[in-house]
Specification:
Distance between the termini: 83 Å
Order of helices and strands: HEEEEHEEEEEEH
CATH superfamily of the largest domain: SET domain
Bound molecules: S-adenosylmethionine, zinc ion
Oligomer: single chain
Strand content: 15-25%
Number of strands: 10
Strand order of the largest sheet: 3-9-8
Helix content: 25-40%
CATH architecture of the largest domain: Beta Complex
Structural class: alpha+beta
Length: 186
């Protein structure tokens, strides 16, 4: 029996259905966050180093990636929303996770994150940096650079919060910069 040839639309639906399945996780659920908007919370304990959710999205080439990054930057200029959805995959390809079938896109930033995004082959996963208890909000370090830090106040509420969404490697530099500003004021 010959197999019916799928239409372009059917192929696309199948592709999205597959990725939607891959993006699901028994470890977490999406709900209102105390940090910002919606967030992702553990509904089962997650052991350290577990890959607990895949960050899925559409594979795009570098030219398209640059175009989307600029569009997101312009959106940022208008609304203040930070663009954090594009991950580097290979020399040729990036992954744009800004799609509603990617629940991991809703993970908020923290200055003391409990997970990190890791690449395994051509796929991106969120991996636990420590044991995570049921009910904890999942967070990772967005790794933003220092420029425009004032546009991104951080509400992670952790003890080591530096007040702005910037990558861990910039925390000391930012603390120094803020201290210098305080000195100038007084
Ligand atoms: C990828 S979204 C995360 C999901 C977001 N909470 C939502 O409901 O759409 C990134 C945006 O969430 C907000 N956000 C994430 N982490 C934050 C934090 N620690 N403090 C304040 N806002 C944060 C910022 O507005 C950022 O632009
Ligand atoms: Zn913070």
């Amino acid at each position: 029996m010959s197999k019916k040839k799928l239409t372009k639309e059917e192929k696309e639906r199948k592709r999205i259905a597959k990725l939607t399945e891959r993006g699901k996780s028994d470890f977490v659920e999406v709900r209102g966050s105390e940090i910002h908007g919606r967030g992702v919370y553990a509904v089962r304990s997650i052991p350290k180093e577990e890959y607990f959710i895949e960050y899925v999205g559409n594979r795009i080439d570098k030219d398209e990636s640059e175009r989307r990054a600029w569009a997101q930057y312009e959106e940022h200029e208008k609304t203040g929303a930070a663009a954090v959805y594009i991950f580097n995959l290979t020399k040729r390809w990036d992954l744009d996770g800004n799609v509603e079938w990617n629940p991991a896109r809703l993970i908020n930033h923290s200055c003391e994150p409990n997970s990190e995004a890791v690449q395994d082959g051509k796929r991106i996963f969120l991996q636990a940096l420590r044991d995570i208890d049921v009910g904890e909000e999942i967070t990772f370090d967005y790794g933003f650079e220092l420029d425009c830090f004032e546009d991104h106040p951080c509400r992670c509420g952790t003890e080591s919060c530096v007040g702005y969404i910037v990558g861990r490697e910039y925390h000391d530099e930012l603390a120094q910069l803020l201290a210098e500003r305080e000195t100038l004021k007084s």
